[in-house]
Amino acid sequence: MNKRPFAITLDVGSSRANHTGSWRVERPVYVDRLPPCNNACPAGENIQGWLYEAESGNYEAAWRALVEENPFPAIMGRICFHPCETACNRVQVDEAVGINAVERFLGDYALAHGLRLPHPGAATGHRVLVVGAGPAGLSAAYHLRRMGHYVRLVDSSPKLGGMMRYGIPAYRLPRDVLDAEIARVIDMGVDVVLDHNVQDIERERELGNFDAVFLAVGAQLGKRVDIPAGDSSKILDAVTFLHQVADERPPMLGRRVVVYGGGDTALDAARTARRLGATEAVIVYRRTQDQMPAHGEELTQALGEGVTLRWLSTINQVDGDTIMIEKMRLNAEGFPEATGEFEALGADAVVLALGQETDLTLLERDGRVEVKDGVVQVASDLMTSDRGVFAGGDAVPANRTATVAVGHGKKAARGIDAFVRGVSVESVAKHELASFEHLNTWYYSDAERTQRPELEKVRRQDNFEEVVLGLTERNALFEARRCMSCGNCFECDNCFGVCPDNAVMKLGANGKYEIDYDFCKGCGICARECPCGAITMVPELI
Amino acid sequence: MTRRPIHFYQVGSFAVGNRLLSDGERTVQSDAARTNSIDSGHRACQGCGEALGARYALDAAMRATGNRVVAVNATGCLEVFSTPYPETSWRIPWLHSLFGNAPAVATGVAAALRVKGRDDVRVVSQAGDGGTVDIGFGALSGMFERNDDVLFICYDNEGYMNTGVQRSAATPPAARTATTEVVGPHPGNAFGQGKDLPRIAMAHDVAYVATATVADLHDLEAKVERAMQFRGARYLHILVPCPLGWGSDSSETIHVARLAKETGLFPVFEAEYGVVTSVSKIRRVTPVEEYLKLQRRFAHLFGKNPRPDIVTHLQEIANRNIERYGLRDEEVVAPRHARTEVEV
Ligand SMILES: Cc1ncc(C[n+]2csc(CCOP(=O)(O)OP(=O)(O)O)c2C)c(N)n1
Ligand code: SF4
Ligand SMILES: [Mg+2]
Are the C-beta atoms of B290 and B248 separated by less than 8 Å? Predict the structure, then answer.
């Protein structure tokens, strides 16, 4: 017996001898759930991931995480319709995180600081022909270069950018931003051929010895409808109109311009007409304002600039400087039907914005690529019916937005990469969705969204200056920090703190946490109190 | 002087830690080198709020005193689950004597330290609600009156849990316990009885009195730190849900404590020399039902034969607290560590 201090009769043992982990019927396990923003992003961006970096003010790291998937943050931060914000869980707390505004901030930051895209991969010797230098073609070129493939990018226009240049007005996407982000991709060593109209895919493929082709030819033809019209009437389609404006040879439209259609292109055309000097820019649409497919923010901006709306109206006839409008009403099913009531409206020009179609002459001549309902048919890896020929963007069945096209570019690059290497595309199983019920939002402070400043209305009337302005660094940081990091641990130490049994171990900087199953009793507090839903309880096999 | 709180907005502001905060602004609990005053392997039930609350409070006291704390413990769950022979969970000097005498024993420890000239070592005395508001009450009142240099902490789980959930003078009205059964026209604990110990402590005019819950760690730690800035008698009353005695799910311990505060049933405030100096405002207004429904001790108020009259009565108690302490506020409630105030 060893000697103990006075009056002490027992040795002290630690309770750590008592492994309370044996009480457990459920065990906590760390998981990564899929944030709804990431899930909704057509370009497959890891939004939560880059916001995480931005939260700590590490903008370069944030930008690098972003361009892993999408090489155009400054462009996307201006023109993307941000389905991520619609899906954002924060909508159910106060308002969506301003993801798009932060994306733009990062894009502008990278341009201002001259950040370069990642280096191209080591040359593989494989050659890919990309037809069409819009968002899909450029995105494919970017990803293919990163994989080390040779890329030749051809386009029939004199400049790169496709619809981003010829469809989207400069007040939404300034040309210096567009040029700078495109140049960065081209600088990765893309072989560019402009003013070149591909006539024969097969021949071009053979001549250039290309292992694969990516068709990203877009949908550049404005849809026409037959409206009885007199000879002197001026009718043109919105695609041509916007293209001419982008080419700096705007057509003469006159004082009163009527735009027919209810989509984003209609708004672009009307707002552009205002800037070219039209005193009246009237949008005529056959359904109601709520049913317009145009995005709400754009509509508000257009109305603020003096664009007016005539909904529940169709154009029946155009004669000289007068058009005849027939009023519509919604029937019981909510469809518009004619009322037989007519009204004359003065119009010096009518711009048709009734949708776009793909120019199929090239494909029809080729005959190998299957086309149905005016669009190219593709498999899940975006390969067409012609082996080695892939297609994406507006020419295939999908939502026609630049962001979808960027996503297609990446997907096609993966498909092409697998094809030239003779393997199949590895599909990664998606994680379970980090839906709102998984969160414990108590832990986030109440923080309303930062609004983006807009150019004063008087300054928008006769020029193409950018309308929506960027966030300051302070506001961008604030906005990034509103992100709740849904489904992904952000090292808040809550699990480490709330365990009554000290059974969560903190692994140090960025090392996250580990459960000590010797002592974890399985109470479940850590999972219940995890703010972002990154812990789940799993039954023990007994 | 108008005061305007500066809000500190960022991911997880109310959480235990935050990678974006400097070390000094983080909680003691977020520190990988925290004391862990109570070690793993203790025999508290799954999800025990008392085990958690005691670690929160004592680790903070250790930080505040440069690791110079002696703890005196009354009989109760905390003592029993931490020290079954031959093991102990305590990693700090710790003493247990009897159920009712913890304040008196602490007085003695403080006197001994004074005699030895050890004013660097601070005394914390702790007990459950039974040991505080009932059997230890006389000794505690004496300790207050003599203004002995002790921080007394009551871990309030609203009953005698260690002996099988009997009623104490801190058990809320209508709650079912082993001694307040669900029988007759007034099931559960009676209305109009019990003691409000924080207010009784304030009536002794001691330097510092505060309440806290295990749901707001930043607040709890700040109060322990503040308490350690005073000499003389101080009192901290911490609400610690007991999954066994309350019939709540073990995972809900913190959530239940949060709702106790958000409903107004458990007012969270601090007072110096008998005067309230700050209150934790309600952040998300919550009716008492939401709190009660999570606990089987109130199950008889709902279900087949509901008692909305009793629920209303409990809501009135919450409303009175809200009124008395001014718990409602139009303002956004910022996390404790962000409540820096500026003059405007
Ligand atoms: C003088 C005396 N009477 C009764 C007991 C039995 N006893 C031990 S713990 C306890 C209840 C403790 O209740 P509380 O102080 O609220 O602590 P809890 O267990 O709820 O944490 C009782 C009655 C005792 N130990 N000594
Ligand atoms: S009975 Fe209650 S206070 Fe006691 S150990 Fe269990 S949960 Fe904790
Ligand atoms: Mg008790």
Answer: no
- % of chain A exceeding 90 in pLDDT: 77
pTM for this entry: 0.90
Chain B residues close to A11, C-beta within 8 Å = 86
Total structural domains in chain A?
4
**Quick count: other Cβ atoms within 10 Å of Cβ A115?**
16
Q: Where are the domains of chain B?
A: 23-333
The domain B23-333 having CATH identifier 3.40.50.970: the answer here is yes
8 Å CB contact between A347 and A323 = yes
Cα separation, A259 vs A236, in Å, equals 10
pLDDT band at B154 (very low <50, low <70, confident <90, very high): very high
Q: Is A322 on the interface with B (CB under 8 A)?
A: no
State in Å: Cα B107 to ligand 3 middle: 22
User: Do residues B51 and B126 lie in contact, with contact meaning Cβ atoms separated by under 8 Å?
Assistant: no
User: Which amino acid is present at B58?
Assistant: L
Atom of ligand 2 nearest to the CA of B76: 4
Both A169 and A263 in one domain: the answer is no
In Å, how far are A73, A174, A271 from A117, measured between CA atoms?
Answer: 11, 21, 34
* Distance, CA of A177 to CA of A76 (rounded, Å): 11
Ligand index nearest the alpha carbon of residue B76: 1
pLDDT of residue B12: 64
**Mean pLDDT on B293-298:** 98
Check whether B3 has a pLDDT greater than 50. no
Tell whether the model's pLDDT for residue B7 goes beyond 70: no
Among all bound ligands, the one having the nearest atom to the CA of B179 is 1
Residues A371 and A349 in one domain: no
Instruction: Judge if the beta carbon of residue B245 lies within 6 A of ligand 2.
Output: yes
Of A407, A358, A348, A346, nearest to A382 (Cα)? A407
From the CA of B298, how far away is ligand 1's center (Å)?
23
Q: What is the ipTM of this complex?
A: 0.94
